[in-house]
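ok trying again, last paste got cut off:
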Amino acid sequence: MKISPKTKIFLVLGIFLGLFLALIILLILPFFGQIQENSKTLISQKNKLVSLRQEMKNLEEEEAIYRQKQEGLEKINRLFISAEMPINFITFLENNAAEEQLTINISPAGFQKAGTDSWSSLAFQVNLTGNSASSLRFIEKLENSPYLVEITNLNLSRSSALPVSPEIAFPVGASPVSASLSLRVFAK
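nice, full thing came through this time. structure:
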């Protein structure tokens, strides 16, 4: 069978067109698919980068706020005594009693865990002997102390029958006063 030159041209063009389409389908379309996939990955990574930068900015702002508030937080933390070792508070009481020329007897009365209250607390029973003005100054210093203290009970009694310490000076005509304080001190 003889093929005409016109048919040969169409046949060769058809074969080249088929090869060209096969080349496009097999090589170029997967390449474009890979480009699309890489573009989606790039967009996803850019979005992650933007969100990470925003998170870093937020963290830096929060850190700056924390640094500003840290001094206040430290002051608040110093308001609470150590539940295990309330030595600083007891020393504070003894020093103030000595400054006011009072004899002092401190007895721990118990520990209350945070339950109904917001914070844990320690209870102390403090007995003072001295003149009334000194006792009131001691109570004022206690109220203005750097600790969170609540005076839950206060009893003052004047009596000449109280034992008087020789180092305590009383004004002429003044009799000693006995003060009994029940304290609740908030703890860490």
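cool. The radius of gyration is 43 Å. Strands lie at 103-112, 120-130, 149-158, 177-187.
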